[in-house]
Every structure is written in structure tokens, then in C-alpha cells.
Amino acid sequence: MPTDAAIAPATAPERTVQSGFARAEDGVELHWTATGQGPLMLCCNGVGVGTFFWRYLERHFSRTHTVVLWDYRGHGRSSRQLDPLRADMSVQRHAQDLGFVLDAARRAGAPAGPAVVVGHSMGCQVSLEFRRQRPDDVAALVLALGTAGRALDTFFDWSRSPLLFQAAHRLIFAAGEPANRALRPLLLSPLAFQVALKAELVDPYYTSRRDLTPYMAHLATLDFRLFIENVCRLNDHDCWPLLPEVDRPVLVIAAENDKFTPMWCSRKMVAQAPGAELLILAGASHAALIEQPETINHRIERFLRERLDQAT
């Protein structure tokens, strides 16, 4: 498996595409791609998610920016063969990994200078932690459909959510590999999409099967011990105290029908981060990146133009 960059041919004359692997200090390989030319935009996924949720944002902003997508350890094309009993799946670890990805992309020709860091769901915590670890590398933060810390405390706006996930953690680790064999067919079933619609986990009017199927397919490939470990580690991380100290422009994006992250979390982040701005998406869910991409892209455009003077 190569380290650093393996340069792929451009898909369009005006948009260069690079891809490669960054190696963390513990030997884990982290896959990344960089599309376009211009100021850096780093995108941080949600837990269990690959880079496919950024499809519309990458297509839009790679005209004017270098958009870097990457896979967390244990996800996508990054190293998968991790020992569930030893693997560090913490938010702090993911933020450190982002630093290795950024350094590798720069060695491959990505522009120097601070980046616009965009997070979705867990990626909001990763983005804020990256700002804490490497403040000089952050020009602005776009925090979409997530919170600043201890995400399980507010999951479904239910105080007992942490207990539920702790119980799931015990069961999945006790079952071991058979848990993977039992859960994967459920995610790959044609009924999975219908269940997501009926439970209102996604917007039934704006979510297409074509956009959501890659999420289900990717989730089915994960080791669910690593997945549940990652989820539970979200509650060990807290960047709420950092928000008043953030001296970079911040845009927070919330969705009216987000079951995973209640809107009051977004309002609280805006209230605590100096000068932060808020976009509320009417009728959208936690999957708003693929439900209302035009609205999101246009609002981020305006944010970058007004707050960073970046041409879009």
C-alpha cells in the first residue's frame, strides 16, 4: 500500500485530482483524495460514513477550492485490519490523523495556508478537536448536523442514550465476529431504506435511494466492534469549553428534523462561539448533506465570501 500521493489523471481539465495514503505514527494508512485547485477545504465524515456524503459539496467547491476528503481509520479505503480490543477510535485520534492527511496532501502539492474545515455529525467534534490541536491550520469552521462534545448525551435528545450504547458495546464485543455476520444482511436488505424513511431518520421527500444506498453498503463492511467503540468514544470528548476561545469564523448548520442531534445543540454552539452564524434547514434530517446540497453549498459560499473573502 503506497504512502503519500499516487497522482491520478484529472477528470476535467480545470480540476486536478490527487489521491494517496498518509501514514500515522502507529503505522495506520489513511486514504485521502484532493480535488480542484485553490484554498484548502478539509471535510470530516460522520462515524461509520465514507466520503460519499460529500459528493455534492466536492463537485461544487472543487471549482474554486482544493477539496480534501479522507477516510477515518477502520473506514473506507483506510486501514481496516485493526484489533478491536486495542484500536484507538477516539475523536482525539481522528483529529491527529487529519493532521497526517493534511501534511501528506501538502507534500503532494496541495496549497499551503490554513484550511476551511468542514465537519458532518461526528466530524464536527473532529473539526473542533483539530482546531484545538493545530489552530494555525484552520481558517474557518463549518459544523454541520453535529455538536461540540459528548454527542451521546444528546442523541435523540434522550438522557438514557449513553446507557443504551454502553449496553450495545458490551453485547457486540461479547458476540465478536458473529455480530458482524448477523448485522450485515440487515443493512444490505432492500428494507433498510424503507425503515430509514418510516422512522423519519431521513427526509422522505428529498432523500434518494441512490444517495443513501452507499451509506448502508459501507456501514455493512465495517467491523461493528470498531464502529460501536468509535460511537462510545464520542462521549469521552468535549470541545464545549473551546468554543468561546475560537477566533475563526464559524458557520453552524442545523436541520429541523435531525433525530440524532437536536437543534438546540446548534443554537448553543452559535451562542458560545464568538461571531458564529447559523443556518437552519427546514424539514431536513441528519442526512441533509444529500437532501439539500444546493442550499448548503450556497450558504457556505456566502460565508466564505463574506468572512474569508474567498472567491466562489
User: How would you sum up the major sheet?
Assistant: 9 strands, mixed
**What characteristic shape results from the CA principal axes?**
globular
What are the secondary-structure elements, in order, as H or E? EEEEHEHEHEHHHHHEHEHH
CATH structural fold name: Rossmann fold
Strand order of the largest sheet: 1-2-3-5-4-6-7-8-9
| Name of the CATH architecture | 3-Layer(aba) Sandwich
What CATH first level would be assigned? Alpha Beta
Helix fraction bin: 25-40%
Over all CA atoms, what is the radius of gyration? 18 Å
User: What's the count of strands?
Assistant: 9
Structural class: alpha/beta
Task: Tell me the number of structural domains.
Answer: 1
Low-confidence stretches: 1-13
Residue-averaged pLDDT, rounded?
93
Explain what this protein looks like in three dimensions.
With 312 residues, this protein is of the alpha/beta class. The chain has one domain (4-307): Rossmann fold. It has helices at residues 55-61, 91-107, 122-133, 161-175, 177-188, 191-198, 209-221, 224-233, 263-272, 288-291, 293-307; strands at 4-7, 17-23, 29-35, 40-44, 66-70, 115-120, 138-144, 250-255, 277-281. It has a nine-stranded mixed β-sheet with strand order 1-2-3-5-4-6-7-8-9, with helices on both faces. Strand 8 (250-255), helix 9 and strand 9 form a beta-alpha-beta unit. Residues 1-13 have low confidence and may be disordered.
Quick summary:
The protein has one domain (4-307): Alpha/Beta hydrolase fold, catalytic domain (Rossmann fold). It is 39% helix and 17% strand. It is built from eleven helices and nine strands.
